[in-house]
Amino acid sequence: MTMPDAVTPRTLTDYWRWYCAEFDRTRAAISDRDLERLYAELERVRQEGRQLFVLGNGGSAATAAHWVCDFGKGAAVPGQLRFRVHSCAGELPWLTALANDVSYDASLAEQLLNWIRSGDMVVALSVSGDSENLVQAGLVARRAQALFVAIVGARRGRLAELADFTLVLPSTDYGVVEDLHLTLNHAFTQFIRGDLVDRAEAALRDQTNGVRGQ
Questions:
Q1: Ordered alpha helix ranges (H), the chain
Q2: What is the pTM of this model?
Q3: Would you list the domain boundaries of the chain?
């Protein structure tokens, strides 16, 4: 969705109001069922000790690294299983070697080949859904029998056709879609951390009560 021509002149205030309205519209249109499914799959990989790979290009590569930080550190609770989370974009020497010596299109897929196993999970963050290096990474994930998840904008692209599961953020504005990629990260990691803290505290209470009952 682009800013309507009727909004003239295009002042910063006009644009800010439109942008916030587009963010709110898109956020409200995200499927609750898809959010619950994504949460269930994230919990599966955590509980089973599987690996989680988060991939993206440009700003989405930075967001992928942010997911790694928050799932790796923010959602870590003492005594609870942790996420084994990686972002191939963070391996800069390896990434540039592959881009230079093989191709940029293969720069993520080639890294995955060293790590991916059946049952792992690969999340591709994309606005267009058509980045070739993400498509190739998705093919590697599918061949390895890992779960491939695409979180894309309204254009969907080839990633939506390739993925085992697609979460659509229904806007064509790249800023709004990228903002929601990060919003999802924060909402999921904060919820997961809170849930794990509750579990840890409940386990401690049970242990304490058990000692007192002896």
A1: 12-29, 32-48, 59-69, 92-101, 109-115, 132-143, 157-162, 174-212
A2: 0.92
A3: 32-196
CA distance 49 to 20: 38
52: pLDDT strictly greater than 90: yes
CA 56, CA 42: separation in Å to the nearest integer? 18
* CATH code reported for the domain at 32-196: 3.40.50.10490
The answer to whether 50 and 120 are in contact (CB under 8 A) is yes
Quote the CA–CA distance of 75 and 85 in Å, as a whole number. Answer: 11
The number of beta carbons lying within 10 Å of the beta carbon of residue 75 is 23
What pLDDT, in 10s, does the model give residues 87-138? Answer: 998 889 999 999 999 999 999 999 999 999 999 999 999 999 999 999 999 9
The secondary structure of residue 120, as a DSSP letter, is -
16, 19, 118, 181, 185 from 12: Cα distances, Å: 6, 10, 49, 24, 28
